[in-house]
Amino acid sequence: MEPPAQSRRVTIVDVARHAQVSTTAVSKVLRNAYGASPAMREKVQRSIAELGYRPYAAARGLRGQTYTIGIMLPDIRNPFFPDIVDGVTDWFKDTDYQVLLGPGCNGEEAEARVTEAMVDRGMDGLILVAPVSPRSHLEHLANLVPTVVVGRHGHSPRYDTVADDDIAGAALIVRHLADLGHRRIAHIEHLETDPTRIAEMPNTQRSEGYRRAMRERGLADETDIVSTSYTQEGGYLGAQQLLARKRRPTAIFAGSDFVAMGVLEALAEAKLSVPEDISLTGYDNTSFAALRSISLTSVDQAGNDIGANAARLLLDRITERGRPTVQVKLSPTLIVRNSTAPAAR
Amino acid sequence: MEPPAQSRRVTIVDVARHAQVSTTAVSKVLRNAYGASPAMREKVQRSIAELGYRPYAAARGLRGQTYTIGIMLPDIRNPFFPDIVDGVTDWFKDTDYQVLLGPGCNGEEAEARVTEAMVDRGMDGLILVAPVSPRSHLEHLANLVPTVVVGRHGHSPRYDTVADDDIAGAALIVRHLADLGHRRIAHIEHLETDPTRIAEMPNTQRSEGYRRAMRERGLADETDIVSTSYTQEGGYLGAQQLLARKRRPTAIFAGSDFVAMGVLEALAEAKLSVPEDISLTGYDNTSFAALRSISLTSVDQAGNDIGANAARLLLDRITERGRPTVQVKLSPTLIVRNSTAPAAR
DNA sequence: CAGCTCGTGGGAAACGTTACCCATTCCATG
DNA sequence: CATGGAATGGGTAACGTTTCCCACGAGCTG
């Protein structure tokens, strides 16, 4: 019943012996490096297959690459992030790289722990999704290892960025609601206090986009923002505040789908129905929004494209570390569902 | 504008020089190993802090441990899995271990790719959540590296398992519905065809539990199972089949919350309301179920406990590889919400 | 005081892979 | 036929850490 004495891993040396060549030769074949004849390649490949050899990443790491890419996600629960991850993994699918995710990165401290751990493990590249760390830490990381920052505006000479145009996204919503005849359109935002990153966060961009679009439509006086947080709880509390106004809004633009879920709850408690009494929109087009019984108008960020772009930029930077940084900005699209309707006369 | 010449990492040699001791000594301090006086410990610790030294996991891996735990998740989108992950990461929080997730493991082939990659990276332990690979592959893996399998029944002399009692969970549902006066209780299951794993999968356990509980309540003749899949689509199609019956069920036990979402859709199309016309239950108690506008009666699996148990067993096995394997079975609880109501007379 | 043991510290050889550089062969060129 | 260069293959020293051992001295025991 004892497990068989754990057999030693097949190494490059075993392959070399089996194929009757040097370890150098095997290494060259593995990396498609220059200096190996087709005949030798063939011979080595056969030995590799026969022995079932697999390169040991830890050993490779000691000499350079580990062929591992790390993705830091602030929260696996947010259904928007898997799309990004899929975009990244798809891109790396046919390469030797393996993508690994760091879990539980809520908050600056946890974020630092995970990213440090990734550096310690010799990862070849990092994709940081919506990080909350200060810029200085991001740049520190980017100095150590090729890095792409996703979902955060602003640019750095150290890392590439990929983000969706949140200003445009907010405008899509406001225009849609205004076109339906709404004037009192309120917004629930995520309160951002940290001055070092305030301008870079998507949430502040969304509220800025809201403000601009309201102005553009001549609704500047109707601008009404409640600051809570991008959580269900935040939506619930925000909606309660809005419903307590003397002049209630006729439409609410929640900063994220999560927030909209909380708003729905508050509205249900107040016996108000959507969209008859109040129109509601979310942001991120998560799977919640698509549920038929919720059917929330939302903004789609094309998570797959975001991920794919991040992966592309990262691979570029791994190949050519010195190249100037790039900022990719993607355009969101509006998904109209049943939670928005013309304003009551 | 050029990044500063990438500074070399601080190594154990630098620390040794700075503290005026040997590298061996530093290594001992790092691992709390025997053979270092308190005085030396103190001296080395100070140097480590001063230089900001961090051990390089890749190099450690070459000689033994990498202090990395891999979790394989079949699908990040399933809101049930994050609870498990949280349970695991919480357990490892105060240790030197770092948990990393493998993404995109849908299907046997992808699963094998990810697990192989984890082995190649010298991970110290693996937690496989609801794997679909055949037992032989799981045992092969477990031979290479300590492994815990989560959410799959049956036991092996090679790996530990943690699972929720799905038979008991299904019984909770059936009893709840029967107590409400329902007799025609139908079940939508995930069709399992692979004979090698059929008895081990949670889905088959759930339908078995359903059958038994129906018998127990004297409702054997009302047993009505539709086989589709554990997806929203599967729920939609399954519900359509059930609604086409001559004698429609008065309650539907969907095998997972996802399935229930699809059922809701089909019911809405058929202009049937929940729970007035039909009672509906899910399984897994995902965040969907808790949404107020859905409010689905479901079974909670205590994902955190599952994760914590898996972590504990894994750490045990890393410390003592030879010990006999353990099977942990946890008890689910019923969460009653508004989607179930007494059967119409 | 000889012979042990115990506590403390270090030397050096791994671990598996890659990168640098050199050696050999072969062929084309003058 | 001598020379040069390209093509091919290999020797070997790293990379950063751990582990096995050995050395040294102090404090015991008989």
From TrEMBL, chains A, B:
Gene3D superfamilies: 3.40.50.2300, lambda repressor-like DNA-binding domains. This is LacI family transcriptional regulator. Residues 10-64 form the HTH lacI-type domain. The keyword DNA-binding applies. InterPro entries: HTH_LacI, LacI/GalR-like_sensor, Lambda_DNA-bd_dom_sf, Peripla_BP_I. Keywords: DNA-binding, Repressor, Transcription, Transcription regulation. One of its GO terms (molecular function) is transcription cis-regulatory region binding. Transmembrane segments: none annotated.
